[in-house]
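Lab meeting prep.
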Amino acid sequence: MLNTVNELFAKPENYAGVTAKDETVKHIPFRAGEFGKVEIWPLLVAEKKEKSDEYNFQPAVEMSKEISVKTRLAVRIAAKIKELVEKENLHYRDIMVLVQTRSSFVDEFIRACKKAGVNISGADKLRLGEQIAVQDLISLGRFLLLNNDDLSLAEVLKSPLFGLTDDDLFKLCYNRGNAPLWSKLGDFPEYAAVYNDLKTLSNMLDFVRPYELFNYVLTTMNRRYKFTERMGMEVEDALDEFINLTISYEQEHVPSLQGFIDWIGRSEVEVKRETEQKDTDAVRLMTVHGSKGLQAPVVFLPDTVRIKNIKNEQALLWGRDMAYYPLNSGCYDQNCTEIKNENSSKAFEEYRRLLYVALTRAEDRLYICGFAGKDGADKRSWYELCKQTLQEHGQPSGDNFEILEPEVIAKKQNESSLAQNAVPAKEEWMSRPAETESLLAKPYTPSHLDEEQDEDSVSPLLENGNFYRRGILIHKLLQFLPQSRENRGNLLSEYLDKNAEDFSGQQKQQIKQEVLALLDNPEFAEIFGENSRAEVPVIGESGGKIISAQLDRLVILPQKIMIVDFKTNRPAAKDLASTSPAYIKQLGVYAELLRKIYPNKPVETYILWTNKTRLMRVG
């Protein structure tokens, strides 16, 4: 390994700028006699297409079948990594892939790795705004904020979120006049499912945070699968970081969708990802700049042909005593040429210093490869510099050139320094059956503690099949309306008109009367007062299980704690004896969790039967 670096930077034209005093680079290995290998692969060069006077039309479908050289290289590296891990007892975390810039090759390589089943941590930095999946989710947010945004809606409909085609969009848009696309979508029965999903999200908008909204889209609506189905597994990284970003935004800003969409639209969000996690077995992919201070047993250098090209551009040139501004390349005088040559020389010194960093990241093995256009690689490129060194000091191995320590070639499998990462010898515990997993590993909700539980008591003659939705509507209204003491009646009517369109006028009026009867009843002033909290999440241990609960109402008073559970069942239970045992057990678990939080206060539990406007003491 070190001999390769020594030989490459032994020439004055190579070590210039790499060492402080323009001295040759000299390394002395500390691990003497151990196996090391440097291998350079043949350069993948794009094929030159023969020119013809005849115009030959080639459909886009046929053109897409041509595999680019960068894709071929990405696939080959992924296959090599898979081989190293499976056949030579390496771990994925032992391998690092370094690139000069985050170019399109990075996406190709991530795609190739995931297709080959290679664990990869993804790029060390991720520009979220450039990810198509993230753009689709932002368009969804823009549409939900303004339903008349036809462009955003069209982007959402064609995205993996709903998967409509150009023909579908033409059908929706043709001959619609000035009508918004949203109104036309609801007119076609074949798009009813799409319309209903978007309607559901629109109804949620005023009541959920950005994280809850987008997590609902990706998880509950299963749209994450739709994204990966069309875009591949590499889209998972962008989706995960987008969800993380919604959480970060809510920690520092008012959690509104409008604010989040505006913030992410104005910001060039670049997520720096932690790739040095010791407990993660994945290939590390990063830029050479980002790898400074890091090492890995195996390093791949695929981006070795790219060089910085300095042209005669219209730019301000800074000399030692004054600045020059040539209007065009014809205005270059001797001073401008000298400044340009000096800048070019400094740029290539930095270019070679970066090569030195890349070469010295490898501990045991280094694989040098690259891809180029039809003209091949520049003689000043990393690839050509490494190729010249290996041709002079290495030996051919098939299509490759490699350098091996001569005295250990025969013993390379036995004395490999990579043996420290080998799988240990089989031990007795490896063949023992795994112990039964603790119940603490799985969180439970109090309503699912028993495999068999009583169903909610609901009359099949009531509610016209809408009793579950009716209960959800009442819970939501009791959660938010206590904060709006003024104009409650109008707010309640507006909410029901928007979220209960399929309910009859009589059903809406019954819900309205039921909710107002509770909120205006002075007997329940403490339950909905300033010392109460709605939908309070609680997690803790009860009966040897982890319990995750959501309290409908928590009242914290100086003398006691009140837990109130709303029940919308019709008919309501007449007394505690006729109440479902599952309800009583559920409130008992709530009380046990709260007593651990408030050990110095009595905890009381209640059921508020919304239909009868009756508060029942349970415990």
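Slide two material, second protein:
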Amino acid sequence: MNSSNHATAATGQNGPVPESTSNQDDLYQTAINRLKHIYRKKLKPLETNYNFEGFHSAPLTDMDIEAKPMVLLLGQYSTGKTSFVEYLLRSPYPGAHIGIEPTTDRFIAITDGPESKVIPGHAAAVAGGLPFHGLQKFGNSFLSRFQVSQMSHPLLRSMTIIDSPGVLSGEKQRIERGYDFPAVIEWFAARANLILVLFDGHKLDISDELKAAITTLRGQEDKVRIVLNKCDQVNGQELMRVYGALMWSLGRVVHSPEVMKVYLGSFWTNPPQHRYEDCRDLLEKEQHDLLQELGELPKTAAIRKINEIVKRARLARVHALIVGHLRERMPSMFGKKKKQAALLDSLPTEFQKVQLKHNLAPGDFPDPSTFREKLQLYKLDSFNKVNLRLIDVVDDALARDFPQLMGLFPGTSSHQTSHAFTGYSTGGQSESSGQPGPSRTSTMASGDTDPPSYNVAVSSPKATPHSHTSRY
């Protein structure tokens, strides 16, 4: 790209970027600053007072709240997770390995940076500009299998992508990981804006470890999308059967009445020669819908942050009421051990008492068995009793502060920021330039082996006050 194209990228195809884009960036920063203040002053004291960290997650830092949208990729080995990232970026990221054998052996965070480089896990966990401080709790064994891959790319100015190790079958590989794989998945899932679980049409079995990982996504179902990849390797009739088999397999793992959104697609940077074309139109539409959803993430970054903090506030409030209630049920002197055992055995009943007393929603309560597991590590009389002042402060935030914050975003769904996947639009006119644009799934074209060029228009509060349009 020559210097004139660089200038175009900095100012937009048709001159300076409208003032509204800068206003939207200012609005984002205003919302994030207020959100940090609300969390620090009203929610964090409640979390600290009732050891929320010991049961759920560590207190959020300013970097956690400021972090760009995050996309987490999960799946068994060779389902196309790393290839999917390459498909989005149109080039390999630093440290990427692709093959039919298990290749990605670590968690890799792909982020924007001035130059292509790999930051080892221990250094990334203490780096001031990265939101990965909380990963230190998983120890040296995990940090040795974590890295940050930085590269300069317009898409990465709007989001961070987490590529995870492929899940294998068998007990041996699970034990030899050396760290709690489901717990790490849970940590990333809590911070992710979108979770893509990839399946290969030829390998639909769900191993025990993948089942455990999917189970940790409970409570994050609104973020989860299933991607059935490599669909052009089967014909239309076989695709119907594969889809049905996938639904059956998921039904045995995901115990939820809601149906997860499933996307069909084939995300290749170098498509194989043998591909079925009878479902091409369907796959193009499905891929377009998935890319469109990914492109929406930067638009709603602040709203999603608010949503996550509100969810956390409700969880922290219920947590405080539960442990405070259990503390009040403990005797002052004798029989503490026996009483604690009785309370742990009757935890669902105690949950019900708290729910009725404080008029809480059943869906706000944690899973009793998981909560009991963690509660056994503590003496109940070591917790603080219910502090209604702290509870009232959080109630005030939920009733007044968060609604006022949401009031900053009228009409958020239609016209806030540029689309991050403009160049994937179907032929016709490119949205950002008004010029003919490439097909959104030109990698599916017969005989096409090279990744096509495309436009990426990104307006990110974490990048610059104007949109970036680059030609690849």
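Talking points for slide two:
Residues 69-299+416-471 form a domain with the Rossmann fold fold (CATH 3.40.50.300).
Residues 64 and 131 are 5 Å apart (CA to CA).
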